[in-house]
Amino acid sequence: MSKLMQKVSRLKRHKATAIAPANIAFIKYWGRVNEELRLPANSSISMNLSEAYSETTVEFNKKFKKDVVMFKGKRMLFSEANRVIKHLDRIRALAGLNLKAKVETRNSFPKGTGIASSASGFAALTLAASKAAGLTLNKKDLSILARLGSGSACRSIPDGIVEWKKGKTSKKSYAVSLFPASYWDLRDIIVVVGARSKKVGSTEGHAVAESSPFYKERIRGMEKKIKSIKKAIKNKNFKRFGEILEAEAINMHMVMMTSEPPLFYWLPKTLKVMQFVIKQREKGVKSYFTIDAGPNVHIICQAKNAQKIVRELKRMEGIKNILVCKPSNGAFFT
Ligand code: DP6
Predict the structure, then answer these.
(1) Of all helices (H) and strands (E), which one includes residue 315?
(2) 143 lines ligand 1 (CB under 6 A)
(3) 3-class SS at 286?
(4) Nearest to 184 by CA among 5, 323, 328
(5) Which ligand 1 atom minimizes the distance to the CA of 23?
(6) Ligand 1 pocket: which of 87, 144, 152, 300 to mutate (most atoms <8 Å of CB)?
């Protein structure tokens, strides 16, 4: 190979790295109107998390005979890698690229904390793979593409506090930043009470949501709820904000528990932490809880109260890990 050719092929190395945060939803995405396109039944609101992120490197190379997906230095099983490879296929099709890839991902959060996040993973994968494939996409298109991998991943693209507008079509269903990360000094104290991977993941969960007798009612109240929480965030009305997000989490879990088959994600310790939060409020320390499709509790509070809450939590038995997160920006290239 001539020197010039070598230089060109080096420049054409199809490799890129990106970092994307996980996010916690204050108004949840639970249930879809289109499975394949991951179009949600309702809009949702979330905050990106500073201490919980994924870093992903993607390389396309003609030397590779097949796609290889590595997670924390270990090769992923085909059953798990399959969803990643499907996402690579979407990106290859967009870029008109016909090369196999190597994907390497690591998470910031310690192993076995149960904070496994498809949101940070698919957002980082979307950025890294699209850049490595030679595509230049804007935030809106990145959010749409990330959504096809995992719904909540579309919310990890824009900065700070984010709204995923449900949209009627794929082109209209993406997330935008409502407020920058610096807007409100909130904290999400993630209390890890169980680290085992869940039996029924969110993908299957969304599919059965509609079978709950409370689902329709939940969706009916959504527009109003979103309007109210946006107003509370805008006015930094913490009490109103907290009351809405806590009631919303309970509402989603009631739908989960009453669907067919019923999905019950709480452990006894989950309930203990919920009661702890209620007690803290009675003592005047304002904080509210929210819970995703797992047993861990996210305690949402203002920065000024975070340390006090963590100190009290550390006195409780059976807590596996505590991770304090600030609001953060969305996904970026390294
Ligand atoms: C309970 O985004 O994980 O965390 O689109 O199937 O990947 P898929 O689902 P996912 O669902 C998240 C569910 C939730 C609520 C939320 O984050 O809004």
Answers:
(1) none
(2) no
(3) coil
(4) 328
(5) 17
(6) 152
Write out the DSSP string of 51-89: EEEEEEEEEEETT-SS-EEEETTEEPPHHHHHHHHHHHH
CA 302 to chain centre: 21
Q: Which two tokens stand for residue 264?
A: 């019950």
Q: Is the CB of 22 under 6 A from ligand 1?
A: no
Model confidence at 116: pLDDT above 80: no
Token readout for 74 is 């270990």
Measured distance CA(107)–CA(20) in Å, rounded? 10
According to DSSP, residue 197 is labeled P
pLDDT at position 11: 47
Q: How far is the CA of 249 from the centre of ligand 1 (A)?
A: 13
* Residue 320: predicted pLDDT: 86
Average pLDDT for the chain: 93
Identify residue 188 by its one-letter amino acid code. Answer: D
CA 31–ligand 1 middle distance (angstroms): 9
Which pair of tokens denotes residue 235? Answer: 């006015």
Q: What is the mean pLDDT of residues 133-162?
A: 98
Asked whether 170 lines ligand 1 (CB < 6 A), one says no
Sorted by sequence, the CB contacts under 8 Å of residue 288 that are 6+ apart come out as 241, 242, 243, 245, 246, 277, 281, 299, 300, 301
